[in-house]
Amino acid sequence: MVRLYHFALVVRRLLVENRSLLYQFHRFKKPAVASRLYKPHIYLAFLGFSFAKKEEEEVKSIEFIMVDQSSLEKADQLFDDNKFQEAVDFLKTLDQSSADVQWRLGRALFKCSGMDGNSSKKNELIRDAYKSIHEALQKDDNNFAIHKWYAILLDANANLDGMKARVQELENVKKHMVRAIELNPEDPTSRYILGEFAFGLADLPWYQRKIVSTIFATPPSATYEEALEHFLKAEDLKADFYSMNKLMIGKCYMALKDNEKAREYFTKASAITALNEDDRKCKEEATKLLSKVK
């Protein structure tokens, strides 16, 4: 039995090294949960081996944890520490058929795209990120994080195809944002995204409004007040969760001609410590806007 166990581990190692075989040969109960080999005698015969009935039953009883919670927590920690490329590299060592791996890979690739100065490489990263999150959504439709990042990447991916393509996806983007909030009303980032969506619609220049009106019989619309409500709710759910949220609150107040409130939030946004690219952009823009409301 010990010899058989070690042999099974060798077989598994071969499968892990060949992801295409692994995808075909394993069935998962659900992501991040241990799964069993299905009909191991078929897989082993494929590799040129055969076992007696008793040995087959012993192999069938072996469970392999393909993606465990500690692996997902490690990926999340790398992401939270702004180590996006390290997160990508680590996630690529995990099983790629897991929805929990795929959506995390999508968000990490997207963050990497914001740090790449090469436009063609940036676009490639966004395409890859969208592909990963799209596949995750096909497997798990009840995960708020998947819907949240799908909304972000759907918009980013459509933007690569031009203004018209981006506008055509507006309703779809909003649908997934709303679904993310339905699944987890306490997530501040989902609220921020919905606020950004509303602000974008309210702030559309006339020529883009014209494009929108040619695509939709009843064009989607939103107001600065709606956007502000979402941003304030996000800050209420978790203060200081994202530097850009304070900047957007300030921009809403500025659009609503409340310069005193706008100045308050631009001051806060300009005073943050820049830990990543988003923080740097927030600090820079807030500083410029602050001079316009004094």
Secondary-structure map:
Blueprint: H1 2-17, H2 19-25, E1 35-36, H3 40-46, H4 53-60, E2 63-64, H5 69-80, H6 84-91, H7 99-113, H8 119-139, H9 144-159, H10 163-168, H11 170-183, H12 188-202, H13 206-215, H14 224-237, H15 243-255, H16 259-270, H17 277-290
Antiparallel strand pairs: 1-2
Helix pairs in contact: 5-6, 5-7, 6-7, 7-8, 7-9, 8-9, 9-11, 11-12, 12-14, 14-15, 15-16, 15-17, 16-17
Fold and architecture overview:
- The chain is mainly alpha-helical and 294 residues long.
- It is 71% helix and 1% strand.
- It contains 17 helices and two strands.
Question: TL;DR of this structure?
Answer:
The protein is built from 17 helices and two strands. The chain is mainly alpha-helical.
